[in-house]
Every structure is written in C-alpha cells, then in structure tokens.
Amino acid sequence: MRLDIISIFPEYFSPLDVSLIGKARERGTLDVRVHQLRDWAHDVHRTVDDTPYGGGPGMVMKPEVWGEAIDAVVGGGAASHGTPRMIVPTPSGRPFSQEIAQELAAEPWLLFACGRYEGIDSRVMHEYGARMRVDELSIGDYVLAGGEVAVLVMVEAVGRLLPGVLGNAHSAVDDSFAPGAMRNLLEGPVYTKPPVWRGHEVPDVLLSGHHGKVARWRRDQALRRTVANRPELAAAIDPATLDKHDRKLLDDLAFRVGPEDMAH
Ligand code: J9T
After folding, report:
1. CA 114 from chain center: how many Å?
2. Ligand 1 centroid vs 46 CA: distance in angstroms?
3. Looking at residue 174, what is its pLDDT?
4. How far is it, in rounded angstroms, from Cα 8 to Cα 172?
C-alpha cells in the first residue's frame, strides 16, 4: 500500500518509523511518503493560511497551496498507482471506525491531507471530490490542534490490518469491533503469569483448563463490560445472537437489548 501524507509538521510522523508500521515500511509492505505542505507555497514566508471569508476566529488553509501540493503528489504516482483515495481528518467528518479501517486497508493508495487552524478551504475537497474519492473523517468527538495525530491513529488502525503486518494473523480478527462472532461486544479482561500478583489472583476458571467454561466466562465478562462501558453498543445487540445464559446475565444486570419498545 502507498500512503502519502501532506502536513506543515512532517516531524509529527516520526512514530511511523518504529514498531509494526516501521517494520512494514522496511519490508516494503507499506510505502509511506510524508510531504511538507509549505514546499508548495510561493511567498517568502511560505504562507499556507489566510483569514476566513465571512469573518470569525482563526485562519483557513489556502486552496492554491493545497491544490499544487495534491497535484504534485497525485501526478507523481498516477502512472503506476492510478488515483488515491483522499482522507481529510476533521472533527466535522464521518466517524472513523473499524469498518472504515478495513475498507481503507483494501485500497492501494491513500492520501492524507492534514489541516491546521480552522481547516482547509472547502473548495479543495470539492475540487478533488470530482476526481477521486474524498472522505472527511473524525476520530472522535473532541477537537485537536491539527489533523496530524488523527492521521497517526488512522494509519495505525489501517496498517495493522494489512496482510503480513501483524505478527499474529489472528489478533486482528477477534478485535472488539471486528465484524464476526464477538461483534458489538467489548473484549473482557486479560491475565498472564504470575497467578498471584500483590495479592490479586487470576480468576480460577482461567487456570482450570476447561475450554468450555473459559469461553463462557469470557463471554460473560465481555457482556458485563459492554453494558458498563458502552451501553449503546450493548443495546444494539441482536437478541437472536444471545443464548439462554446471556439473557439471564443481562436480565440480572437489568439490561434490555434489541429495538426499543414503542408501546408504553
Ligand atoms: C484538526 O483536526 C481535528 O481536530 C480532528 C481530526 C479528526 N478527528 C477529530 N476528532 C478531530
């Protein structure tokens, strides 16, 4: 996969040199190229922003600089890679999710455009939206100083899904949000040796060697944690995926799943 990132802070992306993503780059699974947006500014101050039309606080990133930057990056790879899918991180975007991470992991080429200040002139997204898929994506309901950290989050979520990036091929499959058996359930607690640490014991069932009981216990823990931490996820569980034991547990927690009862 080819991955281009345009930012006024290329130094933000040094974490991509290490760990899983760093290894994938060394192996050639991932081709990451970070570009300095200011390289496409023409004035002595290498200006990338200006005041917003209509007034208001902050500054808006200029369309001409972005246009030249994107044209140069996209033009440079068009012959070999076609066109990229463009991602613009912004708190006003669609929520980024595991499902979108999986979708992005299937793309041959991603281009991330990092905005600072109050954002990028909207005509940039409009212009490139006519030539390639452009997605404005948010990583959560909070505001950052710029899109850089959001890009790191998305690159890590996508990168670990690429074939051969994760050491253990199964790790990506039973993630809390991966489509599959445990869909809509958070993962429960995990333990390793020693069996007693500072007086805290590992739950007996995990030492029992009884696979059926371990699986049941893990499902109970997943259900309890989902109800406690993400009640909206728990409420969305399809009742048809619950067995008798699940229903009893949720009942004991006084938790109701499935579509809301409209008759009351
Ligand atoms: C400037 O970018 C942001 O503040 C941002 C980007 C993506 N997701 C967010 N929640 C915030």
Report:
1. 15
2. 24
3. 53
4. 32
Q: Over the stretch 30-80, which tens digit does the pLDDT of each residue have?
A: 999 999 999 999 999 999 999 999 999 999 999 999 999 999 999 988 888
Strand pairing category for 200-201 and 196-197: antiparallel
Q: What three-state secondary structure class fits 27?
A: helix
What is the model's pLDDT at position 181? 45
Q: Are 146 and 115 in contact (CB under 8 A)?
A: yes
Confidence (pLDDT) at 263? 66
Whether ligand 1 lies within 6 angstroms of the CB of 144 is answered as yes
- Specify whether the CB–CB gap between 16 and 22 falls below 8 A: yes
**C-alpha–C-alpha distance, residues 155 and 110, integer Å:** 10
**Catalytic hit among 116, 160, 219, 224:** 160
Contacts of residue 255, defined as CB under 8 A and 6 or more positions apart, other chains included, come to 227, 231, 234
- Ligand 1: which of 135, 138, 149, 151 to mutate, judged by most atoms within 8 Å of the beta carbon? 138
Distance of CA 114 from the midpoint of ligand 1 (Å)? 9
Residues in the chain, total: 264
Question: 210: CA distance to ligand 1 center in Å?
Answer: 46
Which of 8, 48, 90 should be mutated for ligand 1, with most atoms under 8 A from CB?
Answer: 90
User: Residue 134: beta bridge partners?
Assistant: 86
Q: How far apart are CA 46 and CA 37, in angstroms?
A: 9
Instruction: Answer yes or no: is the C-beta of 9 below 6 A from any ligand 1 atom.
Output: no
What pLDDT, in 10s, does the model give residues 19-33?
A: 999 999 999 999 999
Q: What is the pLDDT of residue 78?
A: 82
pLDDT computed for residue 217 by the predictor? 98
Per mean pLDDT, which range of 88-92, 113-117, 131-135, 158-162 is the poorest?
Answer: 113-117
